[in-house]
Specification:
five-stranded antiparallel sheet; mainly beta; globular; seven-stranded antiparallel sheet; 1 helix
Length: 261
């Protein structure tokens, strides 16, 4: 993982710089706010785009294989007290370890559909959970338990809406580009798209959506981790919507698309 933006001061010895960088490489937080989109190393995403006003705070966190954590948690988020829906997607290496996320606001997360294994990696998979019109506020932390040896990525998005209008899952194998299933809305809505690529561990990746979606968080570094990208879009009218992703290297992916009204 490239740790751009991390600068050691003259007060830290070269030996301890190496220890600190090794610690950061085992698990890393890439989080966003309602103002800035961040990449896995904390740098602003290249397009510099901002999410629509209907998207509140958001974050993505991950642990590499054998990272040692038993609980993976977001940073403290400043969600709104009421009137928002929280959407959380999790990808993990150990499919048997899936369980609903929890938070420190006493919300109960409901699974959308079922968890799905990767065709290429049948012991691994992804899932999506949501809490509609949930409780929020400052210091909001969302967590998932995990075996300490597992690789896991958790992406959370707050949307200013009170219900999940529709959601769809699909998997497309080794195509360029790949398109999600369609979701249907009954009026204005915010769409949240999760891309979970199935490429191997070598090299950094890219994942770019079309149709006016904006990437707000991603984990696309090389290594033994679960790669993911999260994109959002506001729509102003009832209709059916999808998103097409173009990735490098060319690869398959699991795609989730969730509509919040």
């Amino acid at each position: 993982m490239k740790l751009r933006g991390v600068r050691a001061t003259s007060l830290v010895s070269p030996r301890w710089r190496l220890v600190w960088i090794a610690f950061l490489a085992s698990s890393w937080v890439a989080c966003g706010s309602d103002k800035t989109s961040l990449s896995p190393d904390g740098a602003a995403l290249p397009d510099g785009a901002s999410p629509p006003p209907s998207v509140g705070t958001h974050a993505i966190v991950f642990q590499r294989l054998n990272g040692g954590l038993s609980t993976l948690s977001t940073p403290a988020l400043a969600t709104t007290a009421t009137g928002s829906t929280l959407v959380v997607s999790v990808g993990r290496g150990d499919f048997s370890a899936f369980a609903a996320p929890t938070d420190n606001k006493a919300n109960t997360y409901q699974q959308l559909g079922v968890a799905h294994t990767y065709t290429r990696y049948p012991s691994s998979g992804t899932a999506v959970y949501a809490v509609a019109n949930g409780a929020g506020g400052p210091g909001h932390v969302i967590s998932a338990t995990t075996p300490p040896s597992d690789e896991i990525t958790l992406a959370a998005v707050e949307v200013k809406g009170t219900r999940v209008a529709d959601f769809q899952w699909s998997e497309v194998l080794m195509d360029r580009p790949i398109t999600s299933e369609q979701v249907t809305t009954t009026g204005p809505a915010t769409l949240v798209a999760f891309w979970w690529g199935d490429a191997g561990v070598n090299n950094d990746k890219t994942a770019v959506p079309n149709n006016g979606f904006t990437v707000i968080d991603s984990v696309l570094s090389s290594g033994e981790l679960v790669q993911s990208a999260v994109a959002v879009k506001a729509v102003s009218a009832a209709g059916t919507y999808d998103v097409t992703w173009t990735a490098t290297p060319v690869q398959g992916a699991q795609l989730w698309l969730v509509a919040i009204e």
